Amino acid sequence: MSLIYTKKGDKGKSLINGKYILKSSLIFKILGQTDEFISYIGFLKHLVKNKNLKNVLEEIQEEMFILQAKLASIFLIKKNPKNLPDLKDALKNWEEFIDNLNLKVPQKFIIPATNKESAICHLLRAKIRIIEENLVDLIKNRKEKEEFLSYINRLSSLFYALSLKLSNNKEKFPSYKIKKVKWN
Question: Is residue 3 part of a domain?
Answer without folding.
Answer: no
